[in-house]
Amino acid sequence: MERLQEIFSGYIGDGSSLVFTMLDFWLFFLLVMIVFSFLHKNTLVRSIYLTAISAFFFFKTSGLYVLLLAISVLINYYYGRRIYAAKSNLRRKWIIAFSALFNLLILGYFKYAYFFTDSFNQMFDTDFELVNHFAQMGNGFFGEGTFVEKIMLPVGVSFFTFQNISYTVDIYRKEIQPVKNFFHYSFFVTFFPQLVMGPIVRARDFIPQITKPFSLDASDFSWSVIQIVKGLAKKIVLGDFLLMQFINPVVEAHEDYPGFVSVLAMWAYSLHIYADFSGYTDIATGLSRLIGFRLKPNFNSPYKATSVADFWKRWHMSLGSWLKDYLYIPLGGNRTGSVGSYIAIVIIFTFLIFITQWYDLLYIYAGLTIVYLIGLATINDFKRYVHRDLNLIITMVVGGLWHGASENFVIWGAMNGCALLIYKYWKRISFYEESKWLVARAWKIFLTFNFITFTRIWFKLDEQRTTPFKEGLSDEAADALPFDMLHHIWNQFGFTWHMFTKVLETYQVVFWVMLAGFIIHWLPDKVKATYENGYTRMPMPLQVVSVAILIIIIYQFYGKGAPFVYLQF
Which helix (H) or strand (E) holds 442? Predict the structure, then answer.
């Protein structure tokens, strides 16, 4: 009882309260389900109850930013109804424009205000300081100290903002009708299993389920348990164990190790970030099914990908489809472009040059411009490829920026965009693109995995801004960390068989865990389906015993749990 009182009193506000791997969350969820069992028959009461639970869940992670979530829900519900009721296309366009502007301002202010202010100061040698006027007004109204004057990033703001945008845009496109009841809409946006880390849920997929009766049969229950246990195993055994025992010690002091150890650490990091994020998604989908709702898959064995394009169809699929439907296609997709495409690409290229200070990029841009001009002059319908390439680069840079407000994420997004462009041209001339040989497939998987791992140096090293060992690190020094690691790998690779065996002996358990993780990941889907189906056919008492044993084994790896990576987005 005292533990429950602690859960429902006060808040931590740093994203560590009610984390899926903590006992507190499961006590919380058990209580939620007990009350839910009495309320689920009335769909409106169910929506009100789950909205209240979700708001409390958000409060426990982000404190008074729950007010921001409430305002966002209210405004977008209002805009959705106004768009649908508008009598003229011009009026609908104005309303959707205001709706998009409102949502982007929320995201831009709370996530990118410092980044864009610092970038502006760097580009134009100014010294502007950011002032949180909202906090000042709130403190003036509620009393000093109520709101922190430093702009903090609300947990999950990227996810619920994108859900709101997709809702209003789908109404504008006449793909869905607005939700009639406010609490049904608030439940859709705030549904707590996926509120803070996704996956990004589309209104057309989720809202029709809200008014359906609750349904959970034995098969659904067993499937949910499998997802939850699988998610916990990914997060604790693979994600956290590899991070704490190998990745962080190497990355934080990579200059103390031969360069090849940093390569091994980044291979481990690719496994870690997949296990961490897909583990959360597995738990979220399992919890959702227990409550009676189905979420679409967010991952499809991404390290089986045979190309960068294939990888981005398998990784964080809800974000990829969102960017495709609400950015790439509106820009013109692979068919046409617009003035906005050209303006955006000029801004992106200029921004990249100034924030990275890689002025040699000007030569690359000039060379690419000449190539495209020659193509336009000599190849029929080449303009379509130019537009496709521009729209693709814009989409990937925005996708990179969505992940974080720093130059490292812009670079990461741009590199992946360039890789996609190169692949689209390469596959037209590749002699092994359609090969069925196992060696060719293995080579493509190896090449794709290593490229993705290479780009994640910028992803991982951006986290070092906030780690204790780099406390007080300037933005300029933090931005230089990826290049420091690459320089060390290149110049101090230091691979010898003796050193390699010594590393294997030192981190023996780590490498066994890594090997097991990659083998399980690369197992054929039909093999994974076999053991999942085998579990669901087991008698319930045997299922309970099996899960209990697995949980005990999993938590043998539990140490100082690391926050979920995507909490920062």
Answer: helix 438-462
